[in-house]
Amino acid sequence: MCARASSVLISSVAAGTLEHVLRRDRLIVAIALAALTVGSWMWMLLPDPEVAGSAGARLMPCCGASFLAVFAMWVVMMAAMMIPSAAPMVLAHAGIVRRRVALGSPYIPSSLFLAGYLVAWSAFSAVAAVAHWLLYQLSLLDHHTLSISPWAGAAVLLAAGLFQLTPAKDACLSKCRAPLGYFLTEWRDGNTGAIAMGLRHGLFCIGCCSLLMAVLFSVGVMNVLWGVVITAFVAVEKIVPWKRAVVWSGAAACLASAAALAYRALDIQ
């Protein structure tokens, strides 16, 4: 009898704790996302304690070192740049889970959705790291600016600008701009379902933003200013209501930058 009473009490406490957590779900998720973002940027920008007197030293050794170091750098950089724009989707997942739990469904952590999303971007990071490492080893990536040649950079910017205007960009971006619509059509139950939804959303996001990330090879992979600009643009592109104006302004900026780099290449010659 005592054992049964204890079990009921434990269940009651657990249910109360879960209810308490769910009432603050979006705040908790928002704080966690902010912490991950800040932590990723700090890891990239703060000096390495093992290398005295060099700001950003965590980044620099990887650029000509092992592939694993380059890959780790890209994973952290993509997390820092993409988590802010994924925040509305993760928060929407948390809100849906809360409502489903109230109707008797099991609790599914939104961290699983985020994990699936980051797995997709880790796969992109692997591809970017291969390109980065090979370009560096072949001396096609400038060892000081960590950028490709002006002509190649102009070509990447031109491709990114033109892609902004394509139906493929619009289709992928539409999936990223409507969290409730996405979950309405893509919802899957269970823990594996949450991971699968995050992975699928990450693939749409890669389709939408991969060429914008490739712009880093044109302006300098470790260029913090451009990293912040691209991060902000990707977030604005997914959040503000004026989708066409934002997308077209991004296209214009890429095309203008491509022209500037091409002019610079001609001037060098």
What can you see in these coordinates?
This protein has 269 residues and is mainly alpha-helical. It has one domain (30-268). The chain is 79% helix and 0% strand. The chain has ten helices and no strands. α2 runs antiparallel to α3 (67-102), α3 (67-102) packs parallel to α9 and α4 (110-137) packs parallel to α8 (190-219). The model is unreliable at 1-22 and 51-57 (pLDDT under 50).
Say how many strands there are.
0
Largest sheet descriptor: none
Instruction: Specify the helix fraction band.
Output: over 70%
Number of spatially distinct domains: 1
Proportion of strand residues: under 5%
Q: Compute the average pLDDT.
A: 82
Radius of gyration: 22 Å
First-to-last CA distance: 89 Å
Overall 3D form: globular
The helix tally amounts to: 10
Structural class given helices, strands, pairing? mainly alpha
| Uncertain residue segments | 1-22, 51-57
Oligomeric state of this protein:
single chain
Task: Output the helix-strand order.
Answer: HHHHHHHHHH
Question: In a few lines, what is going on in this structure?
Answer:
Helices cover 79% and strands 0% of the residues.
Question: Which features characterize this protein?
Answer:
269 residues, 10 helices, 79% helix, disordered N terminus
How would you summarize the topology of this molecule?
Layout: H1 2-23, H2 25-45, H3 67-102, H4 110-137, H5 150-163, H6 167-177, H7 179-186, H8 190-219, H9 224-239, H10 243-268
Helix pairs in contact: 2-3, 3-4, 3-9, 4-8, 5-8, 5-10, 6-8, 8-9, 9-10
